[in-house]
Amino acid sequence: MQIDFYILGENSHRDINQMVCQLCEKAIAQHMNVFIYTQSIEQAHQLDELLWTFKPDNFLTHKNELSEIETDSTFTYPIIISSDVKNATKSQHYQFLINLSNESPDLLANFKRIAEMVGKAPDDKEIARNRYRFYRDKGYTLNKYDL
In the CATH hierarchy, which top-level class contains the domain 14-66+76-146? Predict the structure, then answer.
């Protein structure tokens, strides 16, 4: 399993949610389905809105697990947003986890790739360091990208 840490620098003009949209776009182009694990319901709603408007001429098809949308169970959304990582186990179709939570999910083995987003605040960096040590101690392949 590959785990990538994306670190937003102090001078970075990128927002974590914008970065998530870019990662989703790249993953979909590589035929990977994405599970976005958010810290809160509010963050899930923010990403839900942004994925519809990310590109003026296109949108990224997705489903917010908190929505009331009834869907055909045979259709697999390429992107799922949820604040409950257990929702990722309902389907084996998701290879890529974007972790926006402060925790390291228990269900790591379900994914081939994980992206950890690291904010600019000192608390965000400390939480990321703890996750990095956790993954390193488990023997996962780790990459770091300073943005």
Answer: alpha beta
